[in-house]
Amino acid sequence: MALVVGSPEEVKNCSKCGGTRISKDTIRGEIVCMECGYVIEDNLIDFSQEWREFDGDDVSGRRRAGAPISLARHDKGVSTELGMGFSDIFKLPPRLRPKFLRLKKWQQRISTATERNLKYALAELKRYTSQLSLSPGVEETSALIYRRAVAKELVRGRSMESVVASALYAACREHGTPRTLDEIAEVANIPKREIGRTYRFLSRQLGIRILPTDPVDYIPRFASNLKLTGKTVTRALEILSKAKEMELTSGRGPTGVAAAVLYIAAQLTGEKKTQREVAEVAGVTEVTIRNRYKELVKSLKFKELEEKPLVVSAKA
DNA sequence: AAGACGAAAGTGGTTGA
DNA sequence: TCAACAACTTTCGTCTT
């Protein structure tokens, strides 16, 4: 029950006990009765200003209204249309009519050409990001990349969707919250290889840095999908950093490494997961996990064996 | 019976001539 | 443009729990 309350004075009595000692908890957004503890309202929205007014200049300078500007909107959230319908233009002096009709026509031409595309592209982007539960920041970055691609006419010869998907893929990596090509291909309904190809093309043309993805970035998400505890995650990160020191991660697929490390960590903390389960969330096969697993255990054994009982199912 | 293991053959992508 | 190559996958039979 989201509630909008402008001022706390609106609530004067507890609706449960009728008490008058009412407290507003601005951190948690609740109004609470101090006598019986009843939460009268929650989910409050703070409408107060975060600045103070001292004179007229301050007021006009600081007050603002309207939605924030966003790259993820085709018109950045700010647009004006000349003479909606016909009525407005015909209210003008007849002398000006032809001029405004001409302007309106041009506005529509420009709109149909690029903006309609952009509008559609950004709607697709919105769908992808929400389906993958990605942050608005990632959406913004994707939108920026897509706009740059359009500006450089890189979309020509490629499907718009694949460019959007690639922009998203790049943005995710930039934000350190990578999604696999498989995941993006899934929601965009485009073959994975096409997204990969477009992504490489884009990153070359736009000069986007192409650092290989770090397995670390996948760990928290995979772990949460597997319902693993923080303890296991910590353990996994330790193992991973050791693996990195020993050059066991270079040239290997980052998802496979992340999967194997999680698998091992889960064994060590007793939160057993099957290879099948881990493989599932990481989007790799059990065979790959086994291969990484073998390499890791082989090289880390002596190092880790002295602190904790490492080698897991090798007790046979 | 389910999970783990590993061999062998196949796939898509990169690299270097 | 083509061949060689590494990483990864698919498939399948065997072993372990």
Question: How would you summarize the topology of this molecule?
Answer:
Elements: E1 22-25, E2 30-33, E3 39-41, H1 56-62, H2 97-131, H3 136-151, H4 160-174, H5 181-188, H6 192-205, H7 219-225, H8 230-245, H9 254-268, H10 275-282, H11 286-305
Antiparallel strand pairs: 1-2, 2-3
This protein binds a DNA duplex (17 and 17 nucleotides) through helix 11.
Explain this structure.
With 316 residues, the chain is mainly alpha-helical. Among the domains are: 113-206, Cyclin A, domain 1 (Orthogonal Bundle); 215-306, Orthogonal Bundle (Cyclin A, domain 1). It has a three-stranded antiparallel sheet with strand order 1-2-3, with no helix packed on it. The termini are far apart. The protein has eleven helices and three strands.
Strand percent estimate: under 5%
Number of helices: 11
The share of residues in helices is 40-55%
- Can you identify the CATH superfamily of the domain at 113-206? Cyclin-like
The main sheet orders its strands as 1-2-3
State the name of the first-level CATH class of the domain at 113-206. Mainly Alpha
User: How far apart are the termini?
Assistant: 57 Å
On the 0-100 scale, what is the average pLDDT?
77
Q: Spell out the helices and strands N to C.
A: EEEHHHHHHHHHHH
> Biggest β-sheet, characterized?
3 strands, antiparallel
Number of DSSP strand runs: 3
Shape: flat
Query: What are the low-pLDDT stretches, counting only 5+ consecutive residues below 50?
Result: 1-9, 302-316
- CATH fold-type name of the domain at 113-206: Cyclin A, domain 1
